[in-house]
Specification:
The complex is a heterodimer of chains A (125) and B (535). Chain A has 125 residues and is mainly alpha-helical. Chain A contains five helices and no strands. Chain B folds into four domains: 97 residues, Uridine Diphospho-n-acetylenolpyruvylglucosamine Reductase, domain 2, CATH 3.30.43.10; 126 residues, Uridine Diphospho-n-acetylenolpyruvylglucosamine Reductase, domain 3 (2-Layer Sandwich), CATH 3.30.465; 238 residues, Vanillyl-alcohol Oxidase, Chain A, domain 3; 45 residues, Vanillyl-alcohol Oxidase, Chain A, domain 4. The chains are: A mainly alpha (125), B alpha+beta (535).
Amino acid sequence: MKQLALLLALSFSMRVAADEMPTISWTWRAPGATSDPGKVEFERACSICHGAGPDRPGTSSLQIKYGGKLPALLEQRTDLTAEAVRFYIRNGIAMMPRFRKTELTDAQVDEIARYLSRKRPAAAR
Amino acid sequence: MAAAMRVPPGIAPTRFNQVLGQWREVVGADWVFTSDADLDTYRDSYSPLYGEPTERRAAAVVAPASVEQVCEVMRIAYAASVPMYPISTGKNLTYGGSAPAYSGSVILDLKRMNRIIEVSERNAFALVEPGVSYFDLYRHIRERGLKLWIDCPDPGWGSLIGNSLDHGAGYTNAPYRDHFEAHCGMEVVLADGELLRTGMGAMSNAKTWQQFRYGMGPMIDGIFSQSNFGVVTKMGFWLMPEPQCALYLQAEATRYEDGIPFIDTLAQLSYQDLIGSQTHVESPIVGYPVRPDLAALRADQTESRIPALNEYAQRNNLPFWTAPFSLYGPEDVIRAKLGHIRSSFEQIPGARVRELALLRFPLSDEQINAAPDKPRCGIPNLSYFASRFAPGAPLFEGHIDFSPIVPLDGRTVLEAQRIFDSVCREHQIEPLGGRMLMYHLRSAALIYAIPVGRDAEANRRARAGFSKLMEVAAQHGWGEYRIHPAFMDKGVSFYNYNNGALHRFHERLKDAIDPRGILSAGRYGIWPRHLRNPK
């Protein structure tokens, strides 16, 4: 796979037009650059797996699991409940390990759960 | 109804309750965990014993936030002889994760100790606590615009300290990619709570703790790696100054038999420091996953298979062997090195070196996001796990890695690969990887990621195959460099020169440094006196 990544890199150029760049889903900007604490936590703790891009294992896994029937990007999902998000963070699934309270406190998990369930229709939340 | 409290073996429940109360006073009630739900988050998600009675489980967790708290927690544990098992970020998946080696231990979770104490751009080092991940240090450096690189393993969520102590490695130049080799100075809390610093840090007013390793007297840092002699609470690491450029390259050879001079050439170029980076040798023909149309040929162990394999590679326009590596520095220096490297490989008929990408630093955020093979330029990520998902492939839940060290010569590496391939086939295990890596400076590590998961029967088969691989390796004089706790006793049993003199020495150290045997019982086969035989 690493070889494949390198072969793909043949077409890599540092002069790609800005609009061809993949979305930056993992950032190192200081907290406070976005006002939504759930998004801050998601970007800090989750987006390296669940952000956009070919090398995000969570996104790759969900792409295969859903085959396009649901968005592979968690931030685009409209069906996630806060309870389900909390469950998967603490219990893991497939290759995703469990996350401990020393890694993500209950308050941080709640923020992520609220953020990822924000698009679910209010009546169904 | 509340579930019954778990209690470490040999400790009276009332005494353990007292200890928990004392710990709560030290770290706060929120940072002592005893509920099943909390303790479940400490299970090793990639345990080959998952769900079985022998799975290693914790009795409780205490999570201090400072070295002072670690000292106090350990004093309390020592007084009550409570078995403790320190973890840093708990992400040493494949090699044990956040679970103890000895069931019933209390996890000393150091993730909250996440301070980056110092990063010196002038002298290119960092001093960090155990909870600092590669992501954390990378962000710290990036936010400040420091002209420094980190060297990270494939997954970037692990701890610098934890990875280094387990002899982990990365991708950039030596010595940075051998993470223990790149350390300079430690702070350690002993089992009884005493605090010490190694190297120059032993001076109370040390000014060169991260610049001179040896200090004065015996250098003891090594005994705190892959062991259970202390809790490492700080470590210094040398960092690579950001180079002007990185040139990603790939050497290729066309026939099976070329693998021998191909590997030998890589080794010589590394010994001469013309190739400073990590490199690994893979094969689309004899690597993994096994191509379905090659399965029968791969099973043929006679020499007659080789012309057919060569013919397959040629017909499908595939290189037989590939080895990615990278050169760092000013472009004119890189180009001069590349000339020598090319002429060396071109001694092998049909071999070549291809340029994959030239990166100039510093990179913008967009360029970082688009950079290929990120660990090669010190950018932490988790893309390693993304390669575990493929359409139609079985669900990949986890893996344990068989990681023997073999001599860095082409003939031996090819023979070892053929032998291990045969064992995997006999045991119906389909590993990922199987590539030869030059992680460490003078040896080859062959790493086979053997799938494990929630299926007990598949796990049993994986364990049987893993055991057999270890035995076959040992028969040839090859030992593992790192191993899952389920196999630590067996792994160290092969390091048995002179009736196991080294292991017996480790036990003598254990008895002297941790006489009550409370720290990380069983880690790398070192058991406290009261738990030796039977195990």
